[in-house]
Amino acid sequence: MNMIEVRELVKQYDKAKEPAVKGIDFCVKEGDFFAFLGPNGAGKTTTISILTTTLSKTGGQVKIAGFDVETEAKHVREKVGIIFQRPSLDPQLSAEENIRFHACLYGMYSYHPSFRLMPAEYRKRVMELAEIVGIQDSLFKPIKKLSGGMQRKLEIIRSLIHTPSVLFLDEPTQGLDAVSRRSLWEYIDTVRKQYGTTVFLTTHYIDEAEKVDKVCIINHGKIAISGSPDEMKGNLLKQQLVLDSEDRKGLVTELSDMGLFHKTEKHIIVPYQEITAQEVIAKLKTRLSVLSIEEPSLEDAYIEYLKLGGEAA
Questions:
Q1: Keywords in UniProt for this one (predicted)?
Q2: So what CATH class is 238-295?
Q3: DSSP string covering 156-209, please?
Q4: pLDDT (tens digit, 9 = 90+) per residue, 58-82?
Q5: How far apart are the C-alpha atoms of 285 and 254, rounded to whole Å?
Q6: 38 Cβ partners below 8 Å, 6+ apart?
Q7: pLDDT tens digit string along 186-202?
Q8: 2-231 placed in CATH 3.40.718.10
Q9: Are 200 and 34 in contact (CB under 8 A)?
């Protein structure tokens, strides 16, 4: 089942010369971890806003969990959790009150005027989530007394309290320290495995998308390239060996005889794709003084894509 379906989506802003989103298509399967990447101004935020029912579309069709984002917006909102890039907390309330109002708004519980009067199930879940993201000591403090990082953690709890079918993460770890970032991703991974939650991620920390099922890059309002992280890396980059020898001339001769392209920088760089690193090394007779294997990252592929001017290799 496709949890997210986007067909010929168009968004034209008033007075804009051309559409911000130009007829894009993509789907996200139930339970998948999906990354939607792109440079600033590419149409990423516009698309997310439409998917989360906060912006109307100009044309096309978008469904979340089988519900149309415009004609069945109420049902869509019941199915999704969102961590916005910009804070959306009520500063007049305490951290826990923000969570409580959110849970009651989703119809999970009847509202009670204090935390201790709320059902035990609610209190247990809030405390579990608070411990996971490290906010348990600040749970009952006013929002205005919390740091930006602590407010971010609170938004994470609030978005997960109703166990959504689709979790939209818009720069979710912005402002979090390394320990909190890791704790968040470990918890999200647990949620996905336990509840089959579909996760839709946008981030400028490209390494956070390294383990997703599918990556989709949008640029100039169009889907430019998509695939698994491995496919993206394979399409845009090659793995390479870094080699050297005291007999550099002999090594270069061997590589040339093997028909392997190479270039000499500080060391000898040998890109490879059709052959494995082990096969290359096994054929070399020259004694090596330097040997390392460099595997491209998704961030490397993304940067390479941008260097190519947004055109897929």
A1: ATP-binding, Hydrolase, Nucleotide-binding, Transport
A2: alpha beta
A3: HHHHHTT--SEEEEESTTTT--HHHHHHHHHHHHHHHHHH--EEEEE-S-GGGG
A4: 999 999 999 999 999 999 998 999 8
A5: 8
A6: 44, 217, 218, 219, 224
A7: 878 887 888 889 999 99
A8: no
A9: yes
